Amino acid sequence: MSQVQMRDRPHVPWWNEPKNRGYVYQGLLFIVLAFFAYEAVTNASNNMRARGIPTDFSFWNKTAGFDVNLTLIEYSAAASTYGQAFWVGLLNTLLVAVVSIVFATIVGFAIGIARLSNNWIVAKLATVYVETLRNIPLLLQLLFWYNAVLKPLPNPRDALAVPKITFLVPEFAPTVICLALGLGGWLITRRARLIEGVAVIIANAFGSLLMLAALGVWLFGGSGVASVLGQGVVAFGGKAGIYLHNRGLIFPEVHLTDSAWMMGAALLAAIAGAIAFRVWARRVQRSTGEQQPVGLVATILIIGLPLLAYFAAGAPASFALPELRGFNFVGGTRILPEFAALMFGLALYTASFIAEIVRGGILSVSKGQTEAANALGLTRAQGLKLVVVPQAMRVIIPPLTNQYLNLTKNSSLAVFIGYPDLVQVFAGTVLNQTGAAVQVIAITMAVYLVISLVTSFVMDIYNKRMSLVER
Amino acid sequence: MSDQTIGNKQVAFVRRDVTGTLPAPIMTRGLPAWLRENMFSTPLSGVLTLSSILLVVWIVPDMFRYLFTDAIWSAADGAPCRAPGAGACWAYVGAKFEYFMYGSYPRSQTWRVNLTLVIGAVLILWLLLPQAKKKGLAALMFFVVYPVAAFFLLRGLDGVLSLVETNLWGGVLVSLLVAAVGIVVSLPLGVLLALGRRSQLPFVKFFCVLFIEFVRGVPLITVLFMANTMLPLFVPQEWTPDRMLRPLIGVSLFAAAYMAEVVRGGLQAMPKGQFEGAMALGLSYWQMMRLIILPQALTTVIPGIVNSFIALFKDTTLVAIVGIFDFLRTVETARLDPVWAGPTISTTGYVFAAIFYWVFCFAMSRYSQMLETKLAAGRRR
To answer: Could you state, in order of their start, the residue ranges of all structural domains in chain A?
Structure first.
């Protein structure tokens, strides 16, 4: 029987057999690729020898002899090697990437949620932000921040002094009056049915205005409402020891004394306490359904305990105020303008993409979920927090990681404004000094590749855990 | 049994009497109702509204003054722009306009650039407008005939047009050139890579995955560095590629890897029945792809393709790192001209560049959104 079937199968010449053809095509591709690779390697070794370009990695341990203006590890032009310069550049890349990622996430989520806001003007402003920033090349934005905003700042001798912000303050009465009137205005809106539409808006607007004023007076202590409108801020005297000029932002340096370990210990204790509270709150919620204010308690613990410890240890920190001597400041910690420009540019640009991802994620949760949350009596904020966002995160996280990777890769644009990142230090200066183009570029690419691969590996694990388990 | 218990359970509250009638809702239409709904629905919303209005009032008038009323519209040199309180120096943009457009391209020959750009624009419109007919012919013209014609038009042809070396090219011309070459090369190459990645042949698949993941894992700058410094090492010395050609190769390969992932999305979205149907008809692999799969797969991912064109267009600014005078680089260079140098020059140049890039990218993204709605029409319920 089986033999009959065998005979029924049409005779196919061996060169038409898909399997054999597959072998042939792959063999051809392999030969072509191998030929190119062989040509490239022989040409490269000939050319490199002809031009006297080093072909090994011996430059790694040679003295670098150039300075870098931001180093997280010990580094000096005279004593450090090219290898150490590599690590300096890599750490600077990671530094700017991590800081920018944090900012981009905060701004991106805020803008993404704002685009979905019921508030018309907020939603429109968020749209304008997204459509403007994501349609302008990142490099242009970086150059703008660096050359048009930070570089024209006055030189250190005429530095802008950031005014001291006084908390809890001389103008106590205006704050309280504004607060009371504002609350009154809001309360009227709560009893909306008593009065007609226009009055509600006026009351709410008035209340909101006074609330803003109260906040302004409390924060800036300036002359009443004017300070809120952005005028009184600089006029207010007192210096906080923070200066802004064309060589960066200088602020007081913190010196810790021996008993400062108590603050660290308090912080650890606070974190442990917060986690314990959350575990307990979960248990309570499971058995009774009651919710505990986890966020509030955690915030109070994490801010309060170290603060307590700070005073209990007798204020173990001193602040070294920067001082103007001659043409520059002495003392204090400095943030480089290059770092600031790169960070602003990366964070604001990437935030516009994150905002779109967040918006898409939230919209992907079906309307029934929101309606069900409403039907359960959850407020809009509760519904978002407890029902919509946890489901949206499943959609948001994978593209969000992609954006983080893009941001890290885009941090290589540092080379255009002179921030000493991996590309600027290693693929720029080191390459120019040693001429070892092939090795240097291979190492640089390998670093970014490793970062990408590790991230996608972690994401794969996360996705497997998060993906819906269906029957 | 007390009133507050039902069965054995204690309950907090039981309503006994019928509630009163609620008053009629306040206005639900008209401007006040809209304001209440959209601007002052809650106290927080009120605060946000006012903060936003404050922000707008704080920024927009100043911006308007800087860009229009205080701006210097005509001047022979930078002196009027250096006056205190002067706004944007549009006179500077006017004076440098030719440089921004053509770089150092000989001024007597700029008609060649204009002609190339106009032909390109016409072909692109033909390709993109949904109403236009004979798209196949348009694609052939744009992807095959146009690049060759543009090359000879821009670079020159012995005896007919004078030779213009590529190191004189610059400005918008180069930005558009890099973008156009990137698009023309990356689309077919991306399709091939995507097919390779989905291929049954293990070695082909391996190579394509390796290439795509490698390129997507590294920044464009390193690819440009590689194209600029390593490419000349990989070929025999007498073949050393032109300085303009190296970044073009780098950008094209980079864009192709991203394009491949977009196309792969489209291939994966194809139902299996389409493949099986094509095979049952006895079509060969390439016939199946050309006649059945790719037309459908590419159509579904047109928005994604346009999005990667937008990314590519923004990325063209990076070629400046290997010494190519693209539009942004000309803006950067012109900024330092001592005749014009002044406090407002940088901002003016950047604003001008931003408007240029924004208009292009925004138009493309609107086009992709329009297509998305159009393509989704068949699937809309």
So the answer is: 2-51, 60-156+337-471, 165-236, 254-320
Model confidence pLDDT, tens digit, residues A34-85: 999 999 889 888 888 888 888 788 888 888 888 888 888 888 888 888 989 9
Q: B17 CB contacts (<8 Å, ≥6 apart)?
A: none
The domain ranges of chain B are 31-69, 90-376
Q: ∠A26-A30-A35 over CA atoms, to 5°?
A: 155
B chain contacts of residue A137, beta-carbon cutoff 8 Å = 314-315, 317, 328, 357
Query: Helix, strand, or coil here: A160?
Result: strand
Name the minimum distance, in Å, from the CA of B157 to any CA of chain A: 32
DSSP A263-325: HHHHHHHHHHHHHHHHHHHHHHHHHH-----HHHHHHHHHHHHHHHHHHHTT--EEEE--EEE
CA distance B265 to B297: 8
Q: Which helix (H) or strand (E) holds A333?
A: strand A333-335
Residue among A144, A204, A229 minimizing CB distance to B40: A204
The CATH code of the domain at B90-376 is: 1.10.3720.10
CATH of range A60-156+337-471; options 3.30.830.10, 3.40.630.10, 2.60.40.10, 1.10.3720.10: 1.10.3720.10
β-partners of residue B6 are: B9
What's the pLDDT tens digit per position in B298-349? 888 888 899 999 999 999 999 999 989 999 999 999 988 888 888 888 899 9
Backbone Cα Rg of chain B = 29
pLDDT tops 80 at residue B1: no
